[in-house]
Amino acid sequence: MPEETNSGRTGRGRPSPQDTGTMEGQDLLAIELGHVARALQETDDSGDLLNEIVTTAVHMVPGAEHGSIADVIAHRRIQHKAASSDLARGVDLLMQETGQGPCLDAAWEHTTVRVDDTSTEQRWPRFAKLAAEAGVRSMLSIQLYVKADDLGALNLYSGRAGAFTDESEHVGLLVAAHAAVAYADAQRQDQLERAIDTRDLIGRAIGITMERYQIPGNRAFAVLARLSQQSNRKLHDLADELVRATEKRYG
After folding, report:
1. For the chain, the helix, strand and coil percentages under 3-state DSSP, each to the nearest 5
2. Cα–Cα distance for residue pair 9/194, rounded to 1 Å
3. What is the DSSP secondary structure assignment for residue 12, as one 8-state letter?
4. Same domain flag for 209 and 167
């Protein structure tokens, strides 16, 4: 497993080998990124936020026509998360099926990966051939976040060869850095909401068990915990089934 980068939770990847360090329009970019950062902060749902990140990246990064976000999980497998189009989603699936591609390298090696022409690309021959046939000629994959075992990449696609430049990389890295912070915040909010929902659900299941068997709360919880263990089911799932069955029975 790769070590966490110095940028902490942003997990921003290094520039690609093609990058020569040139960039124009930095002041305008800084202004636009400020607007993007505020917009992302106002999006709480992590699913909506990922879609917003993809849309923003496609709009801001020079050369980008389509985009996606994918997680890279154990054994270098890809888990698709969001896409701006069916084409982007399909190319993600090609990387998932072949087990190779720039998204995997970007996430695992903490580097930006630029593909100038899939029709001549030799690093991932199987994937590159399929991507070219699908209509994608240029690609740019940027590590999006690194937190514990979470690895991800922002993938940008174009139907033109040589669509992405050094400027594309710089803008993409900045968008990814802002996006990673916003996504980490949204994940924490989602986790908090799920924890509260789980607590309330189990509380309702305990109340139902107390009333049904005329036992105190600590005994009711013990009954549910024992049943969860015996049936090898999570307590949350067991509580959900009990609450649903009770609601169905009594309306």
Report:
1. 60, 15, 25
2. 22
3. P
4. no
What pLDDT band is residue 63 in, cutting at 50, 70 and 90?
Answer: very high
Examine the domain organization and report whether 216 and 171 are in the same domain.
no
The pair of three-digit structure tokens given for residue 218, joined into one six-digit string: 């600590």
Rounded to whole angstroms, how far apart are CA atoms 38 and 41? 5
| Tens of pLDDT, residues 150-205 | 678 899 999 999 999 999 998 898 888 877 777 777 666 666 767 787 888 888 88
Q: Does residue 128 share a domain with residue 47?
A: yes
Contact 63, 115 (CB under 8 A): no
Nearest CA to 107 among 60, 163, 155?
A: 155
Residue type, 251: G
Q: Does residue 2 lie within any of the structural domains?
A: no
> Token pair for residue 42?
């106002």
68 and 144 inside one domain: yes
Total count of domains within the chain: 2
CATH of the domain at 59: 3.30.450.40
Whole-angstrom Cα distance, residue 98 to residue 247? 46
Confidence of residue 233 (pLDDT cuts 50, 70, 90): confident
What's the domain range around 130?
A: 8-185
- We report the CATH number of the domain holding residue 209 as 1.10.10.10
CA–CA distance, 20 with 172 (Å, rounded to integer): 15
